[in-house]
């Protein structure tokens, strides 16, 4: 039996800065996972990934990353995505330093 | 050291011009990422977890002060004020913007540096003994050979699109400080019974998911046969190496599958074909390169300043005992500057620290610096009378940590804090181990002990050849750390044995502490190192310290 679909977000890196970005419901790219569109339907998720891949002049390496719903919006389910949305643990650099 | 001639400068300028145009075409949408990726990789530009990463080659680890100053400039102007020195004698910048990289490459070209072939399926940056030209135990300075190989391999038309990457190291010491046996191909400069200098060639070493120790392909090559022989070897592998599976593509697998004798026969055949095409130009070039590496004018002076500081300043004495190595010239020493301050990221230096190192080298060190595969910085030629002043300058820059070869002198890859391939973090594990043993004030008692940490199976952190190796994995969505023991990165190279089940992130430092305490209990006195004790007693003696519960359950 195929595995049940788990919720996803479309994520990629920004072409110029390389920063981690996420696709929002209104078709923009956001730097914050919590503002991403949480995709709960597999067919819709595939479609959104295709739409993201149509923007090679903005992004690099789009893929579907596992996420779960939370009060603040989509949240990571795996530590890799947690690091991607935060930044490195040895310096206060990257996303964690933005907006401080 | 080698200075670029007009040909080199023109080549690099043209190459940088090409890459600038490639970046422009990518940004304008005229190149897809699939088309652009091999081009950026060929120029050292990766895309990692949080940003791009530019890997700059430091050929055979040698830098001038002006070059170090430029590395600092790049860190300040286009990055976040620091750089990360790697196990392959490169420096990595973790935060450049794609559109800034052409300017960074132009700035590097001003001081004869580049990022060519620091990635991609090509012959990578040639590495060498970081004590080259200074060590007391070497046949000759190995860097002219390394530079010859660098020039030959740079943009070599046959070797730009191989099945996988190819790493070459060169050393001439009785001791191996370049991990020769973990390279695709290694050149060991030796003397034969007749007193002639030549080359022993090793092949098929490598770490990664299938670690292999290099084997002797040729025992003694005459000088003039070196390049055609290396070219024949790479050529044979480029033809018969597997391209169906990237995990089986490295030459170590080709040697393993075909057998050393078969590979040797193929190399000999190819060598016979191409040897006549080497007209001797390479030997003329080699003579020219050698002149660039003439030894500095060493001075003959008393060392009273050193002796008096050594006798009166215990901090200086501790640093001198740990961080100095014997120089081939009387009155001189080789200084290893630790980039492993307890709690800091192994291999990282701030731009201010880089400038301090450049200034020290300019004032006291014949304008020379080296980067070691152990991620430290070397001042290869220092007169002992200057050591107290150097130590004071290092202290000012927080570069005076006295821990070379000790448990906190850890090799660690960037791991999941930066690397897109990583399966777990390495840097925080290294930081915590170093901090813990600093708290315990034990590391000088423990003595020589190499801990090497990789954040994935690709083994950039050399964990297989660490006396204690740590491999970070993703086990069911959680970071998990496997320990290997008894690895050895010297001429007696050995792959460490897996100790048993892995440890969670919060269990790995206590596990290492139990293991090291166990060693202190087991050793035959302070002169028996961890590795020697391990070789004498084996895994079984150390396992109970790592897994006390299993021991209790079995009892």
Question: What does it look like?
Answer:
- Chain A contains 2 helices and 5 strands.
- Chain A has 100 residues and is an alpha+beta fold.
- Chain A has one domain.
- In chain A, strands 3-2-1-4-5 form a 5-stranded antiparallel sheet.
- Chain B is globular.
- In chain B, α5 links the parallel β6 and β7.
- Chain B has 19 helices and 21 strands.
- Chain B is α+β, with helices and mostly antiparallel strands and 555 residues long.
- Chains A and B meet through α2 of A and α14 of B.
Task: Find the CATH topology of the largest domain in chain B.
Answer: Sulfite Reductase Hemoprotein, domain 1
Major sheet summary line of chain A:
5 strands, antiparallel
Fraction of residues in helix of chain B: 25-40%
| Oligomer description | heterodimer
Mean pLDDT of chain A: 95
- Looking at CATH, the homologous superfamily of the largest domain in chain B is Sulfite Reductase Hemoprotein, domain 1
InterPro entries (chain A): DUF2849
Pfam family, one (chain A): DUF2849
Region (Disordered) (chain A): 69-100
Protein name (chain A): Sulfite reductase (NADPH) hemoprotein beta-component
């Amino acid at each position: 039996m195929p595995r049940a679909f788990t919720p996803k977000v479309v994520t990629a890196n920004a072409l110029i800065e390389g920063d981690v970005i996420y696709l929002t419901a209104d078709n923009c790219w956001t730097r914050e996972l919590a503002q991403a569109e949480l995709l709960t339907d597999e067919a819709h998720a595939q479609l959104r990934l295709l739409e993201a891949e149509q923007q090679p002049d903005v992004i690099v390496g789009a893929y579907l990353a596992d996420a779960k719903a939370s009060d603040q919006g989509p949240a990571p389910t795996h530590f890799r995505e947690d690091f991607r949305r935060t930044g490195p643990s040895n310096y206060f650099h990257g996303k964690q330093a933005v907006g401080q | 050291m080698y200075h670029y001639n007009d040909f080199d400068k023109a080549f690099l300028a043209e190459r940088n011009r090409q890459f600038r145009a490639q970046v422009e075409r990518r940004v304008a949408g005229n190149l897809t990422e699939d088309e652009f990726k091999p081009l950026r990789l060929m120029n050292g530009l990766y895309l990692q977890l949080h940003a791009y990463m530019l890997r700059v080659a430091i050929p055979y680890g040698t830098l001038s002060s002006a070059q170090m100053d430029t590395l600092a400039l790049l860190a300040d102007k286009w990055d976040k004020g620091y750089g990360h020195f790697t196990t392959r004698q490169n420096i990595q910048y973790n935060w450049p913007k794609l559109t800034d990289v052409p300017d960074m490459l132009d700035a590097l070209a001003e001081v004869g540096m580049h990022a060519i072939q620091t990635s991609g399926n090509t012959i990578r940056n040639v590495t060498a003994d970081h004590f080259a030209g200074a060590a007391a135990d070497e046949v000759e300075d190995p860097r002219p050979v390394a530079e010859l190989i660098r020039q030959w391999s740079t943009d070599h038309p046959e070797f730009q699109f191989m099945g996988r990457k190819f790493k070459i190291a060169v050393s001439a010491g009785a001791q191996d400080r370049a991990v020769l046996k973990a390279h695709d191909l290694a050149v060991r400069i030796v003397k034969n019974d007749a007193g002639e200098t030549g080359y022993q060639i090793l092949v098929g070493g490598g770490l990664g998911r299938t670690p292999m120790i290099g084997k002797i392909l040729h025992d003694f090559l005459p000088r003039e046969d070196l390049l055609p022989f290396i070219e024949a070897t790479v050529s044979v592998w480029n033809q018969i190496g597997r391209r169906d599976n990237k995990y089986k593509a490295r030459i170590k697998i080709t040697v393993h599958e075909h057998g050393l004798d078969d590979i040797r026969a193929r190399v000999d055949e190819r060598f016979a074909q191409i040897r006549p095409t080497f007209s001797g130009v390479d030997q003329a070039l080699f003579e020219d390169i050698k002149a660039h590496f003439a030894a500095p004018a060493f001075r003959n002076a008393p060392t009273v300043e050193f002796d008096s500081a050594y006798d009166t300043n215990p901090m200086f004495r501790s640093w001198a005992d740990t961080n100095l190595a014997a120089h081939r010239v009387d009155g001189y020493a080789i200084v290893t500057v630790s980039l492993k301050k307890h709690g800091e990221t192994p291999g990282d230096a701030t731009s201010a620290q880089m400038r301090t190192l450049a200034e020290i080298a300019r004032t006291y060190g014949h304008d020379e610096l080296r980067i070691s595969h152990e991620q430290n910085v070397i001042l290869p030629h220092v007169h002992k009378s200057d050591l107290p002043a150097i130590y004071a300058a290092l202290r000012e820059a927080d570069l005076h940590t006295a821990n070379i070869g000790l448990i906190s002198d850890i090799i660690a890859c960037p791991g999941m804090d930066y690397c897109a391939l990583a399966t777990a973090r390495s840097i925080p594990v290294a930081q915590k181990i170093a901090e813990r043993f600093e708290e315990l004030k034990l590391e000088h008692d423990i003595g020589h002990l190499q801990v090497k940490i990789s954040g994935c199976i690709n083994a950039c952190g050399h964990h297989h050849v660490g006396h204690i190796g740590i491999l970070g994995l993703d086990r069911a969505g959680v970071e998990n750390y496997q320990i290997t023991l008894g690895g050895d990165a010297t001429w007696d190279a050995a792959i460490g044995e897996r100790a048993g089940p892995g440890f969670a992130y919060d269990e790995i430092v206590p596990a290492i502490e139990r293991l090291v305490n166990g060693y202190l209990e087991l050793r035959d006195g302070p002169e028996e190192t961890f590795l020697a004790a391990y070789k004498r007693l084996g895994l079984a003696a150390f396992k109970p310290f790592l897994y006390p519960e299993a021991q209790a359950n079995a009892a």
